[in-house]
Amino acid sequence: MRACAEHWRTQGVDPAAFNTNASADDLEDLRRALGVERLSLLGHSYGTALALAAVRRHGEHLHRIVLASVQGPDDDLKLPVGTEFGWRRLAQFVAEDSAINHDVPDLTGSLRQALARLDQQPAAIPFIDSSTGKSITLRVGKFALQLLVATRLKDGRSAPILPALVSSVGRGDYSLFAALVAGLQQGFSSLSLMQFPMTCSDGASTERRALAARQATQTHLGNPSDLALDPKVCAEVGNPDLGAEFRLPIWSTVPALFLSGSMDSETPPSNAEDVRWGFPNSVHIIVENGFHEPYPRVKSRTSS
Fold first, then answer.
1. What's the rounded Cα separation, in Å, for the pair 183 and 205?
2. CATH number for the domain including 250?
3. 144 membership: H or E segment, kind and range
4. Is residue 24 one of the residues assigned to a domain?
5. Does residue 303 carry a pLDDT above 70?
6. Orientation angle between helical segments 80-96 and 142-153, nearest 10 degrees
7. Structural domain boundaries, residue 42
8. What is the DSSP string of 187-224?
9. Are residues 113 and 184 in the same domain?
10. 163-166: long-range contacts (C-beta < 8 A, 24 or more apart)?
11. Which of 21, 234, 246, 303 pairs with 122 at a CA distance of 20 to 30 A?
12. Worst-scoring range by mean pLDDT, 90-94, 189-193, 211-215?
């Protein structure tokens, strides 16, 4: 990241200029360029943070907003209890599913066993370094499993693999774990620089950081999502934190529809309820068994 940031600075680009307020102002510039009186916005996940910044800065020029999987002004740092409760909901599904509960009778117990095994003796994962083509061995401890579970838990397309993952690691079978770790390593090598100043610009309050730290010690998965808000990481992109004012609650009479998935461990429905308190003209729909993308995917069809 340091090398990437330095490269763009030599090109006259300041990474710290990429922040949520600047993007909200871009929306206002777009409205003016289109010559329209008001915009209606649909935002998902980070898009909801951007939409809320637009409400705060240019709300008089917004008609309606739809916010799906809500990230409120001080929600960028995810709370470990959200992931923990998402895991417990998944464990409950597994316990009630006769097709798999005989193989994984106690999903949370399997997770504890897998984490303990990796904590005591990290796994040796063979890996081909894509940059050099050389074979290396990764020493992988419990953090990698926590990160894999936390990132896949929020997605309804990838969560079904988790019972097989934790139960196999708990037994000392690392074949599935190794394949997922390889994908994780490759993902780290292809990160986009811009996502970090955007995340760092939203930042996290001192109170939020303290709460996340306390919860991390009391949950199975800790808080691997705080990696993107690590002060050392943010320093590499110029510390673009927008400050405490950015993280204040928002009051607006703009009509708003909030959408949440009951299984979303990334942006749980409680996020939307907290934000919605400042939106008196709003409705909140919770999609039962919806994940971070709470609405069903519809395949587009073309006719000849």
1. 32
2. 3.40.50.1820
3. helix 142-153
4. yes
5. no
6. 80
7. 16-77+241-287
8. HHTT--STHHHHHHHH---HHHHHHHHHHHTTSSS--G
9. yes
10. 163/94, 163/100, 163/103, 163/104, 163/107, 163/110, 166/107, 166/110, 166/111, 166/114
11. 234
12. 189-193
Answer with the one of 188, 210, 230 that is the final residue of a domain. Answer: 188
What single-letter DSSP state applies at residue 302? -
Is 181 in contact with 125 (CB distance < 8 Å)?
Answer: yes
Task: Give the phi and the psi of residue 8 in degrees, each rounded to 5.
Answer: -70, -30
Assess if residue 292 is contained within a domain: no
Instruction: Decide if pLDDT at 225 tops 60.
Output: yes
Q: Please tell me what DSSP assigns to residue 268.
A: -
> How, if at all, do strands 62-70 and 39-45 pair?
parallel
Cα gap 116→110, rounded to integer Å: 10
The answer on 110 and 72 residing in a single domain is no
> Based on the structure, what is the number of domains in the chain?
2
pTM of the complete model: 0.90
pLDDT tens for residues 73-112? 999 999 999 999 999 999 999 999 998 888 899 999 999 9
- The Cβ-side half-sphere exposure at 55, using a 13 Å CA radius, reads 30
